[in-house]
């Protein structure tokens, strides 16, 4: 009846493409956040934002 016979566990097939795309998305989001962070430290962009918002110069 098959006693003592090794039967490996059944493993459901999965697709690996999803993991790659989510990693790519995370990398893109990280790059965007870094660009925003760098832009927030730029004096030129700060001046431009102040002009667009109508803030007076300090």
Report on this structure:
The chain has a domain at 28-58. The termini are far apart. The model has no long low-confidence stretch (mean pLDDT 81). The protein contains two helices and no strands. The chain has 58 residues and is an all-alpha fold. It is 60% helix and 0% strand. Residues 1-44 are annotated as: Disordered.
What descriptive keywords fit this protein?
single chain, 58 residues, mainly alpha, 2 helices, 0% strand
Short description:
Residues 1-44 are annotated as: Disordered. By secondary structure, the protein is mainly alpha-helical. It has helices at residues 17-40, 43-53.
The biggest sheet amounts to: none
Q: Helix content range of the residues, please? A: 55-70%
**Helix-strand pattern:** HH
Average pLDDT level? 81
Number of continuous helical runs: 2
- What is the global morphology? rod-shaped
Instruction: Give the low-pLDDT segments.
Output: none
Give Rg in angstroms: 27 Å
What amount of the residues lies in strands? under 5%
- Distance separating the two termini: 88 Å
Q: Which class do the helix and strand fractions yield?
A: mainly alpha
Total E-strand runs? 0
Region (Disordered): 1-44
